[in-house]
Amino acid sequence: MAFEKLQDIHVDRLFQAILKLESVEECYRFFDDLCTIGEIKSLAQRLEVARMLDKGFTYHQIEEETGASTATISRVKRCLHYGSDGYMDMLRKLAEEE
After folding, report:
1. Which domains does the chain have, with CATH numbers?
2. CB within 10 Å: which end of the chain, N or C, has fewer?
3. 37-69 pLDDT, tens digit each
4. What's the CA gap between 56 and 86, in Å, rounded?
5. In this structure, how many other beta carbons lie within 10 angstroms of the beta carbon of residue 10?
């Protein structure tokens, strides 16, 4: 898998910590300490771009709604089609909760 180059003990520990979060409030507190506001907003934007692409929105609609660049939209689209299915797995889980 493509993520093998990312995998190491430190990343494992980070992901294990994320899996321990039990509420949105805990997520806010943890990510506020861990990331800059810009990094958090960038991650949220990418997830929203993935959701909108999956729903069939056009690049123009996505740009207007999220402020994402066409480069970001293209990268997310490439991940949706050729990535590790992480976006699609999460979109399915989120849709189940709606």
Report:
1. 1-34 (no CATH), 37-98 (1.10.1270.10)
2. C
3. 999 999 999 999 999 999 999 999 999 999 999
4. 18
5. 8
